[in-house]
What does this fold into?
Amino acid sequence: MLRRALLAPTPRSRALWARRGLSLRCPLDASTQAMLLRQLYLAYYEERRFERAAEVAAQTVELGVLLDVAHQDVARALQALGDIEGALGHLRLAVRTGPPSRRAFHYWTLGSALHLDRRYDEAIAALTRAIRWGTTDKALYLGHVAAIQCERGKRVRNLRALITQLAEVPAGHGYGRFVLGLLAFHDKQWTEAREYLEAFIQRSTTGRMALAIALEGEVARARETLALLPKDGEPVPASHR
It folds into this structure.
């Protein structure tokens, strides 16, 4: 049942197989139960039934298996419901309960959520911890901090070097395109900013449904930034001359 849920082509069929697996009378070990619950969670999340998704993820938390992942899932559902404080609380719990190998990721996710909520000081504090714990994705975290510093009106002198560094590593793809677009915008590299942000929007809105929903805040922010870019023949915005 778990295998069929994992391979299901639609949220409806994923939920069907997950429920069947959970309803079997044979004893289930906690790990298998948690994985079945996560497939049910994903089905509800992709159908935008966020309250049910949060309830299912909370059941996974109670199992005590993969706690950090379960807290991340609850946070995504709560964020989609507009419960930012609730989401931040679960993201902080993901940091505390996750293994050291995932701690940088959880701090970065927390920082990203705080950034979208324009809580810049808290976002920078979380991302600074991600930098300390990070290994291969440090360029992404450093770039994200710089983008937030620029957004809050601070002058960052090494933007071009940060852009080059991030663009040359795997972290510069996917979410990295969002950060690169913000950095290029603040560096007044209008063409690059447009290319990065449009690539991020294209990738984020045409891939997996769960990822598209999770990145709706970043996509909205990318579109806001694109709207500020000067079109051909138009003057540069006064705030960026």
Notes: The first helix runs from residue 2 to 7. Residues 101-233 form a domain with the Serine Threonine Protein Phosphatase 5, Tetratricopeptide repeat fold (CATH 1.25.40). The CA atoms of residues 177 and 196 lie 5 Å apart.
